[in-house]
Amino acid sequence: MISRRNLLRGSAAISAAGPLVPAAFAAQADPKKSDAYDIVILGAGTAGLVAAIEAHDLGLKPVVLEKMDYAAGNSLYASGGIAAWGTPQQKAEGHEESREAFRADMMKVSENRADPALVDTYVSHIGEDLEWLKSHVGVQFGKIGRKPWPLLYRMHNVDGKGLTGGARLIRDLLKALQDRGIPLLFNTKAMELITDEHFRVVGVKTVTDDGWKNFYARDGVLIATGGFSGSREMLCRYMGGPLSRLVLRGSPYVTGENILLTAPLGAKFVHMDQFHCGPIVEETHANPNFVIDAGVGIDVDVRGKRFMDEIYTYTQKSMATATRTPENLAYHLIDSHWPKAASAAKKFIEMKTRVLVADTPEELAKKMGIDPKVFTDLFAEFNRALKEGRLKEMNPPCSLDEPTPLDQGPFYAFPFQGGITATFGGPKINEKAQVMTNEDRPIKGLYAAGNAAGGLFYGNYIGGTQLGGALVFGRIAARQMALSHRMG
Ligand SMILES: Cc1cc2nc3c(=O)[nH]c(=O)nc-3n(C[C@H](O)[C@H](O)[C@H](O)COP(=O)(O)OP(=O)(O)OC[C@H]3O[C@@H](n4cnc5c(N)ncnc54)[C@H](O)[C@@H]3O)c2cc1C
């Protein structure tokens, strides 16, 4: 199997299209113990790379510092959907959408707890920023998708051309950096921000293969180091025990440097217990979304007991599995009424992921290692309640819109666990991507974007707005630093 790490290092599978980490970057590490640039960007994810390109195109000299030996963040794992409204592509494909509707949904999905100013900023910029990705970076998009909530045609999907959309996006961004000669230094980990006597951030102390090295920044430092989903200790600290058992869906290397670097400066942290949850199968990293979101079937724990309403979204199902089952493990049971059942099982098998198939409910129960009577009773109870229109009276209720009976073999059991996609908490930013203090003042010279920044998301997010947020605020941070450059 090709790991993402190998993929990024330019494995045989992608070498025909050129390595993702261009050799030119590797050669740029400078043995000197300090260096100066206009801006210093920490982290080679979407936010950091976008900021570097924008800053360069505005006439600045940026440098990107990445702690790993490849662009190791969550961007690489992303499906590559970016949610936007009113784009030329939406119009061309016949999808009308208003700014107000998009904004209202962003607020609604956050239970009105997202910072309205940041949401407004997203909504104002995303359309233009998406066009910029096409024109300045060369990113190509496939047809717009109608997913996920609230099922409108907003999802602009990066055309992965054989890679995941996120990996393709990173590859395109890296190429744009290389084309412009923007330095990107790997194995360079930001350890501490440097301030001057006016409490202005003027650089960063890093550790490199050659030891300590300071990078000074005339116009600002951008924290684009992602969130802390890769740090079990921080998940436990900010979210509590059961949630620290969520299976990691993304990068193990986003380990909370957004907090560690900015805490000594008194940054204001917001939404620290907030995150996005999604389903995953831990052993193979398979994403079973397409099965558990099928709109038919029931969900049970390892004892064969239902524990949630099947109307739940994939996010809610993942959360319920993590918090209501001691093992953080559930099975989606489905029968052959679902026309895609056989092909879904095939897809699981192709992903080398366990799926149980049986001709009868009893046999399925045996394969799950439980008493066959458990499924005989459960399936009979479900089918009876469905026939009598009493599904919502079950405990827990089943509120599916178009449920089908469970009586047509073969029967399938698809395993899934609750996983964490990304954390939403971090240093609060304002509309200019400046990091704020507890006293609600911007810290001079310090910016944050992407999952490193706090304020834009709470509770959940409209699929595609995380990459979108990294794009919008990465560009804004670069523009702000360019402004500061011009003002001297
Ligand atoms: C399975 C999955 C699917 C997803 N799909 C989507 C999707 O389709 N649409 C969407 O909008 N969002 C999606 N997301 C979320 C999205 O991937 C993230 O929101 C986004 O990639 C964050 O980008 P970023 O630039 O903030 O950080 P990252 O991409 O995480 O990059 C951070 C970088 O900083 C580096 N770094 C960390 N600490 C330091 C340090 N001290 N010094 C130097 N470098 C450092 C890391 O190594 C990393 O390379 C998905 C996430 C997952 C896990």
TrEMBL record:
GO BP terms, alphabetized: steroid metabolic process
Domain FAD-dependent oxidoreductase 2 FAD-binding, chain residue ranges per copy: 38-464
Swiss-Prot/TrEMBL cofactor(s): FAD
One Pfam family in the UniProt entry: FAD_binding_2
Keyword Oxidoreductase: yes
Top-rank taxon, per record: Bacteria
The protein's name: FAD-dependent oxidoreductase
